[in-house]
Structures are given as C-alpha cells and as structure tokens.
Design goal:
The chain is α+β, with helices and mostly antiparallel strands and 216 residues long. Among the domains are: 1-44, no CATH class; 136-160 and 172-207, no CATH class. It has helices spanning 17-30, 95-102; strands at residues 44-45, 51-52, 117-120, 123-126, 142-147, 152-157, 177-181, 185-192, 203-204. The strands form four sheets. It has a three-stranded antiparallel sheet with strand order 7-8-9, with no helix packed on it. 0% of the residues are buried.
C-alpha cells in the first residue's frame, strides 16, 4: 500500500479507519511524502539566512552558540599564543630549552662537582657510588681538625713521635734532657730541650792539672 489521499473516506466504516490511518502515517514518515520547502519562511541550505544543512559544505555566517556543550570562552581565539615558561611562571617550552634537554644524555645525573678518584701515592681510591664518602683517619701522633663551614681539614701533630729516622726541623724535645760529662772534666747542663745551644761549665777533677795549665 501507499499514501492514499482519499482514505479514509467520509463514508467508510469505523473499523477500516485504524489500518488506513496507520498506512497514511507510515507513508508520511518512511516514504517522505511531505516536502516542506520552508520553515518559518526559511529554506534549508548553506547560504546566509538558510537553515543550516550538514552536507559537507561550509554554512556561511553560521553562529554556533556552543560546541560540544562548551561556550566560546572555553576555546582560544585565532592567533592565540602562550608565553615562554620561566622559573616562576608556566608557559610553552622555548626552542632553546628544548635543545638543552635534547643534549642531556640518557641516564645523566646532577653534576656534584666531586672527585671520583683520590690518588694516595701509587694507590687510587675510587668512589663506589655517586654519593660515596671518603674518610680521613688520623694515625699515631696525628690530629685531624675538620672545618665544615669552610670545607677544610687541618692535619696537625700531637704527642710524642716514638721513632723518627731523621727530622729536618724540630721546635723542642718532647722532654727536656740533662747532659753531663765525667772523667777529668766534670760538668752538667740541665733542662736541655734542643731549642738552643748550651754551654756546660766544667770542673777539673783530681787529674794533676790545675786551671789554666795543660796536663802533659
């Protein structure tokens, strides 16, 4: 069946109305027999003043109030740009910063300005990790004085050196000494600490020589 402009007839039976009416509605909906040229005086099309048609052609002067439910204020205007990011404000990355980042090797770590090796004589002490600690140990008669403020360690001498083959310089002996002579000339010098030369006054013993004379 199809659309019938004469159905239902004015003198048709009431029982015939439902199926005829259903067919009329089907024809209107499915067969699109209704062809409205305008709606409120507006024709469909893509030009200014037309009812916009989605047919792949740009609709001229179409003013869409929302896009995906968002107001125009949610979108950037033409020519909108962001400032370059700084250490105190967000922004876009500059090409200079991008070049710097690309120049960082994979696995690179922060430069700690530290020594990886310490050479002591012919022995190399190597750091076992990037945060390894080198410990200075004071030996006998050595005192270490750390200065955390100035990052320094003062190495000093303390106490008495038990053995020394030779000493280029020495301020004093650790313990003052008494120097004495015996035999025909007897003399004693006490409290000799090596800080200066000493003179030992001698006394001639019973040697047969008198003062001012030489024994033959």
């Amino acid at each position: 069946m199809a659309y019938d402009s004469t159905a239902p007839a004015n003198d048709s039976y009431l029982a015939d109305f439902p199926p005829e009416m259903r067919e009329q509605l089907r024809a209107i909906i499915n067969d699109q027999i209704v062809d409205a040229l305008t709606v409120l005086g507006l024709s469909p099309g893509n030009a200014t003043g037309n009812i916009p048609v989605s047919n792949g052609t740009l609709n001229v002067n179409l003013n869409a109030d929302k896009l995906d439910g968002l107001e125009a204020s949610a979108f950037s205007v033409t020519g909108h740009v962001h400032s370059v990011a700084t250490t105190s404000s967000d922004g876009f990355m500059s090409n200079t910063d991008k070049t710097k980042i690309n120049g960082i090797a994979t696995g690179a770590q922060v430069n700690q300005n530290a020594f990886g090796n310490v050479l002591v004589g012919s022995t190399t002490i190597q750091a076992d990790s990037v945060t390894d600690t080198l410990e200075l140990v004071a030996g006998a008669n050595i005192v270490l004085t750390p200065d955390a403020t100035n990052d320094a360690v003062t190495i000093g001498v303390t106490g008495t050196v038990a053995n020394a083959t030779a000493a280029t310089t020495a301020t004093t002996l650790a313990t003052a000494r008494t120097i004495a002579t015996s035999g025909d000339a007897i003399g004693t010098a006490t409290s000799f600490n090596g800080s200066a030369n000493i003179t030992i006054p001698l006394t001639l013993a019973a040697s047969g020589a008198t003062a001012g004379h030489t024994k033959v």
